[in-house]
Every structure is written in C-alpha cells, then in structure tokens.
Amino acid sequence: MGGRRAFITGVTGQDGSYLAELLLKKGYEVFGLVRRLSSPNMSNLQTVREELHTLDGDLTDQSSLSHAVKLADPEEVYNLAAQSFVATSFSQPVLTGEITGLGVIRLLEAVRAHNPSVKFYQASSSEMFGHIAQEPQDETTPFHPRSPYGVAKVYAYWACVNYREAYGLPISNGILFNHESPRRGLEFVTRKISDGVARIALGKADSITLGNLEARRDWGYAPDYVDLMWRTLQQSEPGDFVGATGEAHTVREFLQEAFKVAGIENWEGHVKTDPKFNRPAEVYALRGNPAKAKRVLGWEPKVRFKELVRIMVRADLERLSKGQSGA
Q: Which of 28, 149, 155, 163 is catalytic?
C-alpha cells in the first residue's frame, strides 16, 4: 500500500472511527491503537476493519506506545484516546489523570524518540474552559476546568505546547466543543436522549431520566470535526484551533427537538430528572468561536443543531426497530 501513514489512538471510539474512514478515503495507510479488552468493541469500525491495521497498546503503558509508534512509522499522529466521560472522571480521577493527562506525555515521548518530525494532533476539549470567563470561548480564553477530566485535558494541552516550544516539534491542539453522532457512547447525554426517545417512540420504554436540563452546549456533528483534525495537520506550521458551531443549546432544547423528530408532542411526561446525574461542579454554558479555524483552515461545520438531532434520533429508531441493542 502507498500513501501517507497515520497513527490514531482511540480508533475504536466515535472520533477515531470517523477519522479512520476519512483518512482511508484520502489514500492514507492507517494504523490504530486498540486496547486489549476481554471483548474488544470494534462496532464503530465495521466499514473499515479490512483496511485498517490495528496495533495493541495502552496509554498507561510506555513500552506498548513506543512499540506501536515504531511499527506504524507514521507521518501524522492523532491522539484521540482518553478516559473521556466527564462523570466517570469524578469517580475515577486518578485513572483519568493517568490516561487523559500522563498518557499524552508517554505518547509524545514515544513519537519524539522515534521521529521528531512527525506531525502530532492532540484532542483537546472545551471542558478545559469550564467556569467560563467570556463567551464565546476562543483560543485565547483562560482555562478553569470543573472536572478531573477537564484538569487532565489542561495538563495534556500545556504539555503539547511545551513540547512544541521546547523541542520544536510540530504539535497542534484541537480545542473541540461537543460533537455527536449515532456512534456516540450511550452514556453521553445526547445519545442517551436519542436512544431514549427512540425507545419511547417504539413502545420499548416509558421515560428517560436525566440530570441538569438547563446546561447549554455547543453541539456539532463528529464527521465535520474529524475533517478539522485532518486540516490542522496539513498546515506547514503547527497551531491550536477551536472547533465549534458558534451556537449553544440547552439539554431541554435537545430533548424537545428529539421528541419532535420522533413525532411525540407531549414530551414532558416522558422525562424525569434525578440529581444523581448532576456533576459535583457543573459547567453551565459552553459556546465556541471557530473564526480562526475558518480563517486559517477554511473549516466550518456543515451540520447544524436540528439536523444533528434528526440524524441521531433517526439512526436510533432504525437500529432499535431492527432489534439491535448495542451502540
């Protein structure tokens, strides 16, 4: 096989699978890091299993990362692996720090030792902004993370900036706001809603239980955002970019739109709230300003809020009506 070589950590996740598809379409040879699990979750990679090279490894294990980078011998590295669920980071803060924070240093060290000219993309997060100082948030907004996940992502972000400045490595951060799809894990609120609404519409459930309905997020469509990741590494100079739609909507609005797509009018009776789903420190409002990404990368999101909700609810209706239970 010819073409450029790319190495993706977190390849089995939502973003990793869409990025693998995008790079394969562009003629890349793609290597993906896969954690050893008793039953590996490869469902997101069904369309590209045959073309993708999978390598065993873990962000907590330095030698496995060094070995995988050596085998892949990539020109581009996309670090998308993380303990990425905010709620879990409160119950497993040390593990989150090990993977989401220190894991990045391990991977940077592996890449630096193998080939310092490799272009490196770090999946940074809007959760780094947390308790926001300004709205919308852009590349200059100060960080004030409100979860162990956000704290670990801030550590990883500054580690990448430091390696770029200290060693002259071509490392870029993508500070991406929430991006969703039918491949989003069922524990994330958007997918919990689309799956729950589909179940109610199909008579498989009566209600859905959520936490804070007033939290506002800037929600985009994951395939749009992996395009931003790729564009980031095509620049001659590394840099940091916010990826966002510039619009914010509440969880309540997402619910309303989802029930509308499913043809259910009186939705309030189907929704319960439980404070156990609230975070110890809530992030109330996130909205990004993607002006720099548009100006420098020529990127802007194609899918907007209502279309995103429609895509997700329809996908879950289709999946559940076929009797499939998994994500």
A: 149
One domain for residues 152 and 34? yes
- The number of distinct structural domains making up the chain is 2
What are the residues facing 10 on neighbouring strands? none
* Domain assignment of residue 298, yes or no: no
Residue 325 DSSP class: -
280 or 96, which is more confident: 96
Asked if residue 20 and residue 135 are part of one domain, the reply reads yes
Q: Is residue 299 part of a domain?
A: no
For the chain, percent helix, then strand, then coil, each to nearest 5?
45, 15, 40
Domain of 125?
Answer: 5-179+220-243
Are 62 and 198 part of one and the same domain?
Answer: no
Task: Indicate if 96 and 196 belong to the same structural domain.
Answer: no
The catalytic position among 17, 66, 124, 125 is 125
pLDDT digits (tens, 9 = 90+) for 109-151: 999 999 999 999 999 999 999 988 789 999 999 999 999 999 9
From 21, 29, 76, 127, active-site residue: 127
Structure tokens at 78: 């996309």
Does the annotation count 149 as an active-site position?
Answer: yes
H or E element: which one contains 208?
strand 208-210
245-249: average pLDDT: 97
Q: Is 4 left (phi over 0), alpha (psi -120 to 50) or beta?
A: beta
Alpha helix stretches (DSSP H) within the chain:
14-25, 62-72, 86-91, 93-96, 103-114, 148-167, 189-201, 222-233, 251-261, 291-292, 305-321
Asked if omega into 136 is within 30° of 0 (cis), the reply is yes
